[in-house]
Design a protein that fits this description.
The chain is of the alpha/beta class. The chain contains 18 helices and 13 strands.
Length: about 500
């Protein structure tokens, strides 16, 4: 996978394995706002079956942690290394660290650590006997030295969980000092724990040649039941875009991150009597990403996503539209989880309020009046809900509908400029690489240049750029399907031709 298709990505090589960390600098920035979750994807050696890392800043301290889950079972060689009287990964991990650090503080505190592990596993306190003949692992020693130089001290804890063991690594770093190097070190320590659980020797055979990716999950992890509604609910994960994937709109993304902070800290909001924004109006030309931004906000907050479309409101029968509006807000007041309520194409639902005196205008006025009443009290009755409205024609929406107090935030979403297009192209390509590249298959060639593509795509929106990529992907897939043999990766010429094709229609 060419590195230029992963701008901002970082690679860590430990114990023969290679881990590509997706946008580590962005991870640390996001960790200042809330909890960031990262999953290690790739073939894990048994008995390990999942690895999760998190980063979160609390009280000027960045908390880095890793959780490695493994099934029960004794790795080979455990008894030969250490007679702890503790079966499973706990004994193995303690043995590895004791023999690697037999003259350090860990060995001197071995009895206490072993007793703690035994208590967690419900076993009698063991007697620790370190195998002093075991050779020191040079790769592990180098890793410990790097972590120590960074001031990173990871506390290790092993607990029994349903179906196996959970190994937790936890470290804290002052928020002003945390860097990508600390994240790399944590990844290295995590790989060491994975290798230890797999029963590897100092020669890194278990992980050698393996490739992993460390990145955010594509969906919001939530087991909450969907709120009851008259129309189908679209969960936040139905389109898993996050604010990190939004390109060319740095100011808008920064504002959305502030809103997300207010949702994550309701206690602080309550202490100061601060009211979160009740409504957000996004306006701009078609294809600039307004609906995508609403979904990204929901995913950033970890909220449910409810999209209201025109047919759900407008009714040909007298009074039907007003009843539909009331029902939508009645349901919204019952939501008990954070929810983003999106009124897409708002101008087609409520427009030209107050204009004209014919029956049609009076019906529109009635719908607008009900909407105003419902918005006036929604936030007081249910602070979990935030209303987002999008429109391509802001001039069609009466100013009284979107005044402050109803829509506190109004953001223009313009077409991207050249640097913005380069950022959008970069992020879209990177997302495709992460999802589709694997050993033996590369989607994009080395000559792909996002900056040159941005210069050639003047006037295109984010939706247009996505269509360019879709066309190229389809053309490559069809060529391979009809030709019966693999074709080369997507190159710069393919993308430039697709841009010209889109301009021609």
């Amino acid at each position: 996978m060419p590195d230029q298709h992963r701008p901002g990505a970082d690679t860590v090589e430990r114990f023969g394995a290679r881990v590509t960390i997706d946008d580590p600098a962005g991870v640390l920035v996001a960790a200042r706002i809330g909890l960031v979750e990262l999953w290690l994807t790739g073939p894990l050696p048994p008995p390990v079956h999942s690895v999760r890392l998190t980063a979160h800043t609390v009280d000027a301290t960045c908390r880095l942690s890793a959780e490695i889950r493994a099934t029960s079972g004794l790795p080979s060689g455990t008894l030969r290394l250490l007679a702890l009287g503790v079966a499973g990964p706990a004994g193995w991990l303690l043995a590895r660290h004791l023999t690697a650090d037999r003259d350090g503080p860990l060995a001197r505190r071995a009895g206490r650590i072993a007793a703690q592990a035994s208590r967690r596993l419900g076993r009698p306190a063991p007697t620790v006997v370190a195998d002093r003949e075991r050779p020191v692992d040079p790769a592990a020693a180098e890793l410990r030295g790097e972590a120590a130089a960074l001031g990173l001290r990871a506390e290790e804890d092993v607990t029994a969980v349903e179906g196996g063991r959970l190994v937790a690594l936890r470290a804290t770093v002052p928020a002003g000092q945390v860097s990508v190097s600390h994240l790399r070190a944590l990844v290295g320590l995590t790989l060491q724990a994975v290798r230890d659980l797999a029963g590897d020797e100092p020669e890194p055979r278990v992980l050698k040649g393996r490739a992993y990716a460390l990145r955010r999950p594509r969906t919001v992890a939530s087991a909450r039941p969907a709120p009851r509604a008259a129309a189908p609910v679209r969960p936040a994960g139905s389109e898993s875009v996050t604010l990190d994937q939004v390109g060319g709109l740095d100011d808008v993304v920064a504002r959305f991150r502030e809103i997300a902070i207010s949702f994550r800290h309701p206690d602080v909001m309550a202490r100061w009597g601060a009211r979160r924004p009740q409504g957000i109006l996004l306006y701009g030309p078609p294809g600039t990403g307004k609906t995508m931004l609403a979904r990204a906000l929901a995913n950033e907050i970890g909220a449910d996503f409810r999209e209201i479309r025109t047919p759900e409101i407008l009714d040909k029968w007298l009074g039907g539209s007003e009843r539909n509006i009331k029902q939508i807000f009645r349901e919204a007041r019952r939501y008990r989880q954070p929810t983003v309520l999106l009124f897409d194409e708002f101008d087609s639902i409520i427009s030209y309020a107050g204009a004209g005196g014919d029956a049609a205008s009076q019906a529109v006025n009635a719908v607008a009046g009900i909407f105003k009443q419902e918005m006036n009290t929604l936030i007081e009755e249910n602070p979990h809900v935030i209303v987002v409205a999008t429109t391509n024609f802001p001039q069609r929406v009466d100013a009284s509908l979107v005044r402050s107090g109803r829509f506190d935030v109004k953001l223009s979403i313009p077409p991207p400029d050249e640097p913005g297009r380069a950022q959008i192209i970069t992020k879209m390509i990177r997302d495709l690489v992460v999802r589709h590249d694997h050993p033996g298959f590369r989607m994009f060639a080395d000559d792909v240049d996002p900056a040159a593509l941005a210069a050639a795509s003047a006037g295109l929106t984010g939706a247009d750029i996505r269509e360019v990529l879709r066309r190229v992907q389809l053309a490559k897939a069809m060529r391979e399907a009809t030709g019966g043999r693999p074709v080369g990766p997507i190159g710069q010429a393919d993308l430039l031709a697709a841009i010209e094709g889109l301009r021609r229609g």
